[in-house]
Amino acid sequence: MADATQARQAAANAGAGVLTLEREAHTLADRLPEILINAQRIAHTVAHGLHGRRRSGPGETFWQFRQFQSSDTLRQIDWRRSASSDHLFVREREWEAAHTVSLWCDLSPSMDFRSHLAPVTKRERALLITLAAAELLVRGGERVSLLGLTPPSASRKATTRMAEAVLAHEGSEAQQATQPPKVTLARFSGAVIVSDFLDPIERTRTHIEALAADGAVGHLIEIVDPAEETLPYDGRTEFLSPDGGQRWVADRVQTLRARYQERIAAHRAEVRELAQRMGWSFLVHHTDHSPTEPLLSLIMRMQGSGADHRWQSQESATAEHLQQPEANR
């Protein structure tokens, strides 16, 4: 009798789990078109005035016409184009040496957090930045992939296919993971990892070092809800784990604020040190800020520009905020 009762309970729990995942899938399906449209809009905004990596060189795809120069040979002249002008023109082809950039964003339960200080969840912001970065990279002539979900592609539909892959794998084990897959990326390829990086530093170090084992260049973007950084609560406060399975109550939570902020700052310093040791870049993005800020900094860093001032200034502003007296906040 007890076994039958336990079996029914297990079946009921499994059914409830399936229904929960179904509701989450429908919610994401409702939001994905909007997220994808926003990603493309943001990518268009950031791309204005920036130049991608596409350039002329050996290849089969037409690039552009330019005027004939003394160093060119007669075989390079495009006589049809030249016939309609008083000048001779050479047909240039696009240099087919695009890099592959693998992107991964944390979609685990901890990313579902949103406080009263932010307009969106960390999950939505991470996915938005990932898709927008993919859109920009494809426009710049690069191949992009969603690590563990989609193969490298330079197609203009690559971003849409990434969004479809996220939806198709909603609730899967891969999307419950708080770390990217342990794979070794090809030398000279790139990686963009978007997460809250709240796992113990040992786990993060193991997975990131695996990605960088053969010399891949990467970029870490930490997504933070402002409440996670400042602990802006007072009095008796209840905290729940992302899955709701654990509960903790603090009677006077404000007395924990200074120590909490110290631990957050120390943990972030360890993630930053890991990135610096591997030659990777590191950016902190708050969900109450514009998503164009980290995207612009990311693209400028990937282009090798030293003018990505927001990359440093955001971290400096965060440090200054944490050091301010509580009365000034």
UniProtKB/TrEMBL annotation:
<dbReference type="Pfam" id="PF01882">
    <property type="entry name" value="DUF58"/>
</dbReference>
<feature type="region of interest" description="Disordered">
    <location>
        <begin position="307"/>
        <end position="329"/>
    </location>
</feature>
<feature type="coiled-coil region">
    <location>
        <begin position="250"/>
        <end position="277"/>
    </location>
</feature>
<dbReference type="InterPro" id="IPR002881">
    <property type="entry name" value="DUF58"/>
</dbReference>
<protein>
    <recommendedName>
        <fullName>DUF58 domain-containing protein</fullName>
    </recommendedName>
</protein>
<feature type="domain" description="DUF58">
    <location>
        <begin position="65"/>
        <end position="269"/>
    </location>
</feature>
<keyword id="KW-0175">Coiled coil</keyword>
